[in-house]
Amino acid sequence: MLFWHGQPDHYWSSPGEMYPISGPGLLRDPPVLPYLKQEEPNGISTSQPPCPAFQYVLCAPTSPAVRHHEETLTYLNQGQSYEIRMMGSPRVDPGGEGRRMLKSVVRVVFHDRRLQYSEQQQLEGWRWSRPGDRILDIDIPLSVGILEPQIHPTLLNTVEFLWDPSRRTSVFVQVHCISTEFTLRKNGGEKGVPFRIQINTFEAGGNGDPPEHLHSASCLVKVFKPKGADRKQKTDREKVEKQPALEREKFQPAYESTVLAECTPWPDALGAPHSPPGTPGLPSPHPFKLLSPERLCVSPACAAESLSESPGEQALSPCASPLETQQWLHKRRFSAYARVFANFAGADLLKLSRRDLIQICGAPDGIRLCNALTGRCPRPRLTLYMSREPAGGAEGTEDGCSGLYQEVHLEELTVAELTGKLAELLGLPAGQIQQVSRQGPSGIHILVSDVMIRNFLDETCFMVAVTKAHGPEGYHLVLR
Fold first, then answer.
1. Helix (H, G, I), strand (E, B) or coil at 265
2. In degrees to the nearest 10, what's the CA dihedral of 254, 259, 261, 262?
3. CA torsion sign, 142 to 147 to 152 to 157?
4. Residue 62: CB partners within 8 Å, gap ≥ 6?
5. Rounded distance, CA 105 to CA 214, Å?
6. Is 39 helix (H, G, I), strand (E, B) or coil?
7. pLDDT of residue 5
8. Largest CA distance in the chain
9. How far apart are CA 424 and CA 473, in angstroms?
10. Which of 194, 287, 446, 449 is the most interior residue, by most CB within 10 Å?
11. Nearest CA to 402 among 335, 351, 465?
12. Strand ranges, E, within 340-422
């Protein structure tokens, strides 16, 4: 479907009229920065520079508080629609089928190197704090000349569309995250982190051919809450105007629009535009596919194995690979954070402190994940130590050989629970234990009740005497 708005002929002027090069227009030579692909001329040329094959202009003013030989900085308001004018040289299909379409991918990425390495984790954290929202969006009703706009539900910071370089094209974008949402401390008054709006353009491949990368350009921006960009622009202008005349000459003039400067493509931009973005410069050595909790254990044998795991086996191994770490998270009901810890091995996850986990996952799940990583089991309400009395009776234990004791953990503190535990410990059928009593003063037998169990001291030791009942089948247990 083609989103096309009819505009009068004077709406779009030629690039030379819109951005005169000889005068103080908006189209200017980008600042000389290390990452820009610029060639040093051998001499000063009086002729006009060649028109670039592609040019993207963001219709937002640049900051006046930027010094010469520094990259321009543009302030944006959160959620406001900004126009990006797409200009490119038409490419004719060598097969004679006419002009070919181009595919452009617009992304909002981090400028700081520290945040680039943790891009996926930062975006997932923003996603969980703002469920249902996107970082970058297209305002389709205002856009002109774009075809097949695609907004991926999982790629919150990426949009893409087709366009014809021979036609006038404008795409309106909205940035919904603000720069202070990714600062380390959120106590108020922090300096927000800068973003980059980057556009990667590809040849729209056909007949199964991979897309060919043609051009990449980006600009530096900061995003403020609504109307915050206007206030910041005014503050910067007043700050520069208060400087002495000699000092003001060190700053660039403010321009009404921002020209995106050519840059190297993002590492994953050289692949298919539809591929999810990865952490720049850090490809994962262990590619894997996320599995849903239902598909992790499909056979009854696997299910029985997972249910029979002992508490000591529930802790994550430091030698676990990223794939094994993902499976461990799914089995422990942490599927919601599988993408946050996508590239974490077992050792990486175990290095996180309790405070780190709470900041990433929130207090409830962070505490639960911390306990699962340390293999901490819930403490039982009552622990008793039991040993079966030898056949010789209590007198047979006076020689110091009283046998081994085993733990019995109680949670419900009832006679039925104690009877079941003793039957399992002694190897007796639970239905044949007719009575459980405790030896009291002067050798009397006291019937064990729920109240008595609740008054047992923790870690009390008992010898269990097993006697035959008067019935055909049955046992009496005496705790000494």
1. coil
2. -170
3. negative
4. 72, 73, 74, 252, 254, 255, 258
5. 12
6. coil
7. 45
8. 119
9. 17
10. 194
11. 465
12. 382-388, 406-410
Pseudo-torsion of CA 406, 411, 413, 417, nearest 10°?
Answer: -70
- Supply the DSSP symbol for 144: B
CA distance 133 to 140: 17
As a dihedral over the C-alpha atoms of residue 51, residue 57, residue 63, residue 67, rounded to 10 degrees, the angle is: -30
- Cα separation, 296 vs 327, in Å, equals 7
3-state secondary structure of 77: strand
The low-confidence residues of the chain, meaning pLDDT below 50, are 1-46, 96, 270-313, 395-401
Candidates 150, 149, 171, 204; CA nearest to 5 is 171
Contact of 349 with 356, CB cutoff 8 Å:
no
116/121 Cα distance (integer angstroms): 10
Angle at 132 between CA 348 and CA 278, to 5 degrees: 40
Per the listing, tokens 């030898």 go with: 390
Q: Which token pair is 363?
A: 């207090």
In the sheet that holds 258-259, the strands lie side by side as 136-138, 169-175, 82-88, 54-58, 258-259
Q: Which two tokens stand for residue 392?
A: 């010789």
> DSSP secondary-structure letter at 67?
B
Distance CA 116, CA 114 (A): 6
d(CA 91, CA 69): 34
Q: What is the pLDDT of residue 56?
A: 93
Amino acid at 309: E
Which residues are CB-contacts of 171 (< 8 A; sequence separation ≥ 6)? 83, 84, 86, 104, 106, 138, 143, 146, 161, 163
- Cα–Cα distance for residue pair 220/62, rounded to 1 Å: 10
Separation in Å, CA 109 to CA 186, 190, 339: 21, 20, 18
What's the pTM?
0.48
Nearest-angstrom CA–CA distance, 409 and 407: 6
Write the CA distances from 39 to 150, 286, 365, integer angstroms: 36, 39, 54
pLDDT at 369: 86
pLDDT score recorded for residue 337: 83
Tokens read off for 443: 């050798």
Supply the pLDDT for residue 106.
94
Give the separation between CA 217 and CA 212, rounded to whole angstroms. 16
Q: For residue 433, what pLDDT is reported?
A: 86
CA–CA distance, 343 with 40 (Å, rounded to integer) = 41
Q: Phi and psi dihedrals of 194, rounded to 5? A: -80, 150
The total number of residues shown for the chain amounts to 480
CA distance 266 to 200: 8
